[in-house]
Every structure is written in structure tokens, then in C-alpha cells.
């Protein structure tokens, strides 16, 4: 749980995981689709791989990434369907959340 939670806590890794829900991907394709640098995507994919959340398949000089287990895919899909009720007067405790714009933190 902690590994998945830490992986999803980073907005870039969350975006990568959401992209991989649709289909396996290559770092360069993910970088282009998410408007990120290839190095940034590669670093985040290495983190996700080291945590066991994604696996790789080598095809010549390219490496394809996919979510390691269908249970993770199902759980992420279910999480995307969750509707949160947020108190408007509440403050955001997570700076990344404030940067991402999911709350009205100063």
C-alpha cells in the first residue's frame, strides 16, 4: 500500500500510471503525450519499476512499460471513479496538491 501510495502521491507518476492504464507505453511516447522530458519520464518509470508497480519488456533497443498486475489496473480505475467531497473552508496540507490546483491552498 505504501509503495502505491507514494507512487501516486507524485503528480507526474500519477499521470504516467493513468497513461499506462490505456495501454503499455515507451518512455519517448509517454514523454511526448504528457509534455514531459524523456529523462523525467525515464526517472519516474524507474521508480515505478523499482516499486514493482510497472514491469518492462525489452524489444531490441526499446523498453516497453506496463502496469505489473491487473489488480493494480483495476484498483487505479476504481480510484479514478471515486468522487471526493472537499470542505471549501479546509486547507490543503499537501504542497503538491496546491501546485496541481486540486484545492484552494495559498
UniProtKB/TrEMBL annotation:
Residues covered by the HTH arsR-type domain: 1-87
SMART domains: HTH_ARSR
Alphabetical list of InterPro entries matching this protein: ArsR-like_HTH (IPR011991), HTH_ArsR_DNA-bd_dom (IPR001845), HTH_Metal-responsive_Reg (IPR052543), WH-like_DNA-bd_sf (IPR036388), WH_DNA-bd_sf (IPR036390)
Source organism, top-level taxon: Bacteria
CDD domains reported in the protein's UniProt record: HTH_ARSR
Name the UniProt record assigns to this protein: ArsR/SmtB family transcription factor
Amino acid at each position: 500500500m505504501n509503495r502505491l501510495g507514494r507512487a501516486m502521491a507524485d503528480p507526474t507518476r500519477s499521470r504516467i500510471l493513468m497513461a499506462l492504464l490505456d495501454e503499455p507505453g515507451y518512455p519517448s511516447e509517454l514523454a511526448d503525450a504528457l509534455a514531459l522530458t524523456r529523462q523525467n519520464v525515464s526517472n519516474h518509470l524507474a521508480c515505478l519499476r523499482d516499486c514493482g508497480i510497472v514491469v518492462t519488456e525489452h524489444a531490441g533497443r526499446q523498453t516497453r512499460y506496463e502496469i505489473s498486475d491487473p489488480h493494480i489496473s483495476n484498483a487505479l480505475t476504481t480510484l479514478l471513479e471515486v468522487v471526493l467531497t472537499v470542505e471549501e473552508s479546509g486547507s490543503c496540507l499537501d504542497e503538491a496538491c496546491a501546485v496541481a490546483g486540486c484545492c484552494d491552498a495559498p
